[in-house]
Amino acid sequence: MDTPRDTPASVNPLRMLTLDRLRRRTSVKWRTYPDDVLPLWVAEMDVPLAEPVARAITEAVALGDTGYPVGGAEYAAALGEFARKRWEWDGLAVERTAIVPDVMLGVVEMLKLVSGPEDPVVVNCPVYPPFYQFVRSTGRPVVEAPLDACGRIDPQALDDAFARAAGGPARSGGGGVRPVYLLCSPHNPTGVLHTRAELTEVARLARAHGVRVVADEIHAPLVARGATFVPYLSVPGAENGLSLMSASKAWNLAGLKAAVAVAGPQAAEDLARLPEEVSHGPSHLGVLAHTAALRDGGDWLDGLLAGLDENRALLGELLAEHLPGVRYRPGRATYLAWLDCRGLGLGDDPAAVFLERGRVALNSGIPFGTGGAGFVRLNLATSPEVLTEAVRRMGSSVRV
Ligand SMILES: Cc1ncc(COP(=O)(O)O)c(C=O)c1O
Questions:
Q1: Under CATH, to which class is 63-296 assigned?
Q2: Which of 190, 298, 318, 349 is at 20 to 30 A from 373, Cα to Cα?
Q3: pLDDT on residue 10
Q4: Cα 103 to averaged position of ligand 1 atoms, centre (Å)
Q5: What is the per-residue pLDDT across 69-87, written as a single tens digit (0 to 9) for each?
Q6: For a pocket test of ligand 1, which of 183, 217, 218 has the largest count of ligand atoms closer than 8 A to its C-beta?
Q7: Model confidence, pTM
C-alpha cells in the first residue's frame, strides 16, 4: 500500500473544520437539510480554502479588484503547467483553450460546436445526473452505454451505443447525424480512473463511428496517491477531442465560477467558433481563485489527496463493521463512493431510508441513470469523525 495512514491534521484539510463551523456555511450542502442531518451528498468538500486561494481572493477584495476578467490565458497557462507537472502532458496549448463559465455550461457549448440540436449524445451510465439534464435541455437525446460490472468503460457497450447513435434517424433539416460522446474522466460516481489503454480504445471507437468526444475532466487532479490521471487529449486518436477542465472540484471552488475548454489540434477550429459572449460568464474572482489554486495550491492538494486515501480505506472498514451487506469498490479518483445497497432490501432508493431513519443525506442512485437503482453516492470529503458517525447511523437505520 503506498498510503501511510493518519496524515497529520496540519496538512490534511479534511481534519481542520468542526461540524459547528461547517454548519455556519450557507451553500446548498449545508442549507438543504435540517441540522440533525449529516450531509454527505452534493460534491462540496468540508475543507477550508487553500491558503494561496484565500490570499488571491482577499487581495482582490482589498483592492476592490472585482471587475471583469481579462480573459482566460493565465488560468489556461496555470492549467498547462499543472498538466506538465502532474500528468507529464505538455499538449495543453493556451491558444487552443477558451474560458467558460463552468464545466457543465462548457459541456453544452462544446456540444453546440460539434453537433446539431437533434444529434444524440452517448453517456456511460450510471453517471453524474446533470449529464442527462443539461444534454436533454439542449434537445439532444441521450444514448446510454452501461459501464461493466466493475464500473469500467465497456468497449462493446460503447461500440453498440456509438453504432445506435451514428445510425439515428435522418435530421429534419437534412444532413448527417453528428453524434457526440460525453466522457466522464475520472468517472463520477464510481471514482474509476480510466487507463491510457481504455482511453485509446475510446478514441479508436469514436473515430470508427464518426463520433466526436467531449471529455469532462473536472475530477482530474483528485487521484489516489501512486495513481496518475491520463488526459483524454493525450492519447493517440483523440486529436479531434474537446475537454473541460477546472480547479473547482479539487480546491472546492464551485462558488467561484470559471472553467477552461481545451481543444485537441484537430478541434482547434471548432473551439475558435465559440461565441464571444460565452467568455462573459466566468467571474473575475473565479478566474483569480482557480489560477492561484493550480499555480500555488499543490501542497494543499497533496494533503487533501492523502486525507482522501485515508477516508477511502476508513470507509471500507466502517462498511465491513456496520453495513456488511453493502458492496463498495474503492475508486482511484474523485472523493465519491458508489455504494451498492441492493443486498440490504431497502428497495430502489436506499438514500431515502438513510435520510429518514439515519439522518444522513446521500445522493440517490436513481438519477444517475440505468444501473443506479439500489445504489447511493456518498461524498467522502469530510472528516474521519463525520464519516464514522455517518456510517454508524446508516448501519443503525438498517437494523431498525
Ligand atoms: C463530473 C462533473 N462534471 C461537472 C460538475 C459540475 O461542475 P461545474 O460546477 O463547473 O459545472 C461536477 C460536479 O460535481 C461533476 O462531478
A1: alpha beta
A2: 318
A3: 65
A4: 6
A5: 999 999 999 999 999 999 9
A6: 218
A7: 0.96
Answer whether 13-49+298-399 and 63-296 agree in fold: no
| Averaged confidence pLDDT in the chain | 96
Q: Identify which of 276, 389, 374 has the alpha carbon closest to the alpha carbon of residue 364.
A: 374
Residue by residue, DSSP assigns 29-79 as: HHHSS-TTSEE--SS--S-PPPHHHHHHHHHHHHHT--S----SHHHHHHH
Q: Cβ(375)–Cβ(365) under 8 Å?
A: yes
Ligand 1 centroid to Cα of residue 368, in Å, is 14
Place domain 13-49+298-399 in its CATH homologous superfamily. Aspartate Aminotransferase, domain 1 (3.90.1150.10)
Boundaries of every domain in the chain = 13-49+298-399, 63-296
H helix runs in 276-383, sequence order: 284-296, 298-322, 350-358
Q: Does ligand 1 come within 6 angstroms of the Cβ of 45?
A: no
Q: Residue 182: CB within 6 Å of ligand 1?
A: no
Q: What are the residue ranges of helices labelled H in 150-233?
A: 155-166, 196-209
Best mutation site among 45, 216, 378 for ligand 1, i.e. most ligand atoms within 8 A of its Cβ?
Answer: 216
Question: Cis peptide leading into 186, omega within 30 of 0?
Answer: yes
The pLDDT value recorded for residue 1 is 36
Task: State pLDDT tens for residues 10-58.
Answer: 699 999 999 999 999 999 999 999 999 999 999 999 999 999 999 999 9
Pocket lining: 218 vs ligand 1, CB cutoff 6 Å: yes
Does residue 304 carry a pLDDT above 80? yes
Instruction: Compute the distance between CA of residue 290 and CA of residue 292 in angstroms, rounded to an integer.
Output: 6
Can you tell me which atom of ligand 1 is nearest the CA of 101? 10
**pLDDT band (50, 70, 90) for residue 399:** confident
Would you mind telling me the total number of residues written for the chain in this entry? 400
- Which pLDDT value is given to residue 174? 56
- Protein residue closest via CA to atom 12 of ligand 1: 218
